[in-house]
Model the fold of this input.
Amino acid sequence: MTKESYFTEEDSAEAVNARMGDNINPRLAEVMSSLVRHLHAFAKDIDLRQEEWDLAIEFLTRTGQICSPERQEFILLSDTLGVSMLVDAINNRRPSGATENTVFGPFHVAEAPIRAMGDSINLESKGESCLFEGRVVDIDGNPIQGATVDVWSDNADGYYDVQQPDIQPKFNNRGRFITEADGIYSFVGIKPVAYPIPDDGPVGKMLSALGRHPNRPAHLHFLITAPGYEKIVTHIFDGEDKWLSSDAVFGVKESLIAPFEPNTEKTQWRASFDFVMVKS
Ligand code: BEZ
Ligand code: FE
Done:
């Protein structure tokens, strides 16, 4: 097919892709021609009706319109369609034994306070206290010194501090901890609670039209970095949570379920989890 060919239903994707110029970035050419092929195949597969395509464009328009510096509805769309987890899986294949990644989510805040080992990240008097502890090690089990354990979680009401800037203290349930030569980290927080992803926008409407709930099982987020190692973006999950097998964003992996045990000492609960890093 030549660049000047007329469009036909039968050869629609080929007609579009044939228009591409000659000196196009090869990766852009690969990505766009595949996108066009799949998009056209999708429309043909379902005999896409005009009113359905109009609705799709209106949906994407509303998705863009609700975005702000505090809200990224397109990421939520990618999360709820499983694309975030797929892209993460493609880009973070690790040997067995290494800690698995999961979805980053929209609530990380850079530059959370660096706290002393054992400190509390919970700046409110709510929630069931929980001691979190473990080690950051390499694939052979050797402790990693100088790893940053950056942690964030929702509060006992199921909201992150950034969702309630007028209610919660800044950096509530957040902190960074830097490991010493033993690789050990420990801090006190709350036993996390399940919460719904923001569902008052187009993505929430899509979920409800599909008979899907917006809930995420209780989890604590971690971003682990150390010089010379691949960063780990992950969670630990409470294995007792009722949403564990139906996470709205498909983030649960069996290896990330941590035991939450009643604690006899200063906190009501204790969860231990080791992070295993791979050299970069
Ligand atoms: C989160 O766990 O913070 C999250 C992940 C994906 C979408 C919304 C929230
Ligand atoms: Fe979360």
Observations:
- The mean pLDDT is 96.
- Residues 105, 107, 216, 219, 221 surround fe (iii) ion (ligand 2) (CB under 6 Å).
- The radius of gyration is 23 Å.
